Fold this sequence. Notes:
single chain; 26% helix; 2 domains; six-stranded parallel sheet; Quinone Oxidoreductase, Chain A, domain 1; 15 strands; Rossmann fold; alpha/beta; 27% strand
Amino acid sequence: xxxxxxxxxxxxxxxxxxxxxxxxxxxxxxxxxxxxxxxxxxxxxxxxxxxxxxxxxxxxxxxxxxxxxxxxxxxxxxxxxxxxxxxxxxxxxxxxxxxxxxxxxxxxxxxxxxxxxxxxxxxxxxxxxxxxxxxxxxxxxxxxxxxxxxxxxxxxxxxxxxxxxxxxxxxxxxxxxxxxxxxxxxxxxxxxxxxxxxxxxxxxxxxxxxxxxxxxxxxxxxxxxxxxxxxxxxxxxxxxxxxxxxxxxxxxxxxxxxxxxxxxxxxxxxxxxxxxxxxxxxxxxxxxxxxxxxxxxxxxxxxxxxxxxxxxxxxxxxxxxxxxxxxxxxxxx
Length: 333
């Protein structure tokens, strides 16, 4: 049975244009329309959630609002023939947590085509250790692996201590790639080595020579999570027929690069859009993450907080101080 109310993080805009956050009771009837009502067991904290939680209108247009772009739990009500009450499910991406009340509440209501069945090989908590970050990493690795075998050479992963980066390092190492990780954190070496990185280089080393037209080819492939000058240098240092995936812009949305790597080396630059990934591909990659690609050390990547413990985690991710993934226990199991 569904309750009349549930707990959620609510972000409100004050009369003077500031934003405040609090844990409050919300009514089930206040949730948006949708075919599927889900009791959320776990969510996870992403950079986009932190932006929404601080009032970024580029992420969330209307307040009050509950962030949380990831959710894993159990179907409570469904008008979809494909989803039944009691079924364990995952929702990532689409508009969840952006302008649709998200996973930082104990219940969500969403369209049926946003929902995938949780594969048997993953628990809801494990699914949220992965979350949007893990799914984005899986899309990046899948795109790279279709054209670049492990024998071709080193794979560069930028922003390697972040959610997408750390999971990409782990997935690539599991698939027998030699991974070079980029990090600006002086204390990150042991963490990244533990994930399977063979070498760690600084941001400065990764961006070196980025103003030149071309660089000596080194990388067989790249998983880039930051954009800007580091991405440009990585493209210019990619081997002939190498693949570079791009999914982030925390360094810069601008890309100072010329056409030489593409027309002289046949380098492929592949954009990764996990938010609007089609349902069939989404389910297929989640099945991989629960099967052949399942990571042995998932729990080592995660810190866990409750709704009441989100405040310091939000501040930490905005300051770039978090490593790995932050899982949110909704206490609604």
